[in-house]
Amino acid sequence: MYSYDHSDDRLSIAQMNSALHQAHLELLSAHCATHQLGLHYSAEDLARWGRRDLLRKSAEAARALNDFYSSIEKNIPQAAPKPEPQLTSAQIAHAIRQVACYLREQRQHYLPAAQPLSNQNKARMWPYFSSQVLDQVRVVELHGRRVPPPAFYAQARALGFDNLPQVTHMDSLTFLDVLVFNQTLAERSLFHALVHAVQFQYLGLERYTELFVQSFVKTRVHFTVPLEAHAFSLESKFKRPSAERFSVADHVLRWIADGRY
Question: 4-18, 91-105, 178-192, 194-208 — which is least confidently predicted?
Fold first, then answer.
């Protein structure tokens, strides 16, 4: 049993939570990829036409993950369930304004310290993003310092929203065209942040914020919001061992045209 009274145990607990965080990010990516699979294909078609070896391996992996985390969940102290919050249209409109204001303010806050993308990063991202986007964005690496949670989170929690996006634990945050990394810039988190920059480019701040807030109010989980799910899906496609080149802008424009956001 670990104890915070011992310095070695505190270090082990910190390492454990770091490993848990990395596993959580991988699970989010897998969850989003599976969510997209279910949107495009029925379970019947997958069972009939999908590669049986991949289906069996995926099902076995899902069962093993479920067994592992279920065994942990049984030992987590349970709080009394809370009723799901119901917001009025006026409250949703107010939340949209708050989020838009936060994104704009954070952009202005980090912009003075932001730097252009390096030529190396531009070259790696060029097959997926236009030169215009890669030249326009600016990046900030916080090296372990963290973007603090928005001030309006306290108000949101008071309304019953406990599962808010954990901005202090995210690898990257996109404030329009300013990409902020809580640790250091990594290829995968850069790609994810750039997808959001493209979404901002074509949707604009107001429409992006409106879509995000309205979807979050419905789903209660930020990574199932279509804007976020699409970014995770494209990130997963980017990281495949034999990933083909593709245009993120084309994907974003297709989702906008189809009303999928």
Answer: 4-18
Q: What is the mean pLDDT of the chain?
A: 88
Number of domain units in the chain: 2
Residue 2 counted as domain residue: no
Q: Which two tokens stand for residue 5?
A: 């009274």
- Answer yes or no: do 115 and 139 share one domain: yes
Q: How confident is the model at residue 163 (pLDDT cuts 50, 70, 90)?
A: confident
Residue bearing tokens 């919050």: 85
225 and 123 share a domain?
yes
